[in-house]
């Protein structure tokens, strides 16, 4: 008789503990579900990466050019009159000029160093890819 009573008590205890555990798991899952639902309505930024442009300036034989002035324009009129510069920079020792947080559009570009420039070719950069690291090479002569 005492063994039967002990078995019944242990069984009841385990059933109560199991029900508590099951209730806790249900509560946890409900909280998790509602949390995920709430965060799904939070607006996410449309673009994680900014559109950027790296220009490599080279001379007519392919060497990189340090110290070249680079100017970007949105329109052909601004480019021809050399007014309303959108962005500008100077090439580094590797011939690179980096522009960040740009619009994904086409740009007109003037590159000059001393008596050399890019006139006669390479005056317009095709439309940049949105959210990408865009690269172009411009030759000055």
Describe what this molecule looks like in 3D.
The chain is 32% helix and 27% strand. 11% of the residues are buried. The protein is rod-shaped. It has helices at residues 2-40, 76-81, and strands at 52-58, 69-73, 87-90, 96-99, 107-113, 116-117, 124-125, 133-139. It has two helices and eight strands, in the order αββαββββββ. With 141 residues, the protein is α+β, with helices and mostly antiparallel strands. Strands 2, 3, 5, 6 and 7 form a five-stranded antiparallel β-sheet that branches. It has a three-stranded mixed β-sheet with strand order 4-1-8, with no helix packed on it.
Mean pLDDT: 85
Strand residue percentage: 25-35%
**CATH architecture call of the largest domain:** Sandwich
> What is the overall shape?
rod-shaped
Integer-rounded radius of gyration: 33 Å
Order of helices and strands: HEEHEEEEEE
Total number of helical segments? 2
Features:
single chain; 141 residues; alpha+beta; Immunoglobulin-like; 2 domains; five-stranded antiparallel β-sheet; three-stranded mixed β-sheet; 2 helices; 32% helix; rod-shaped
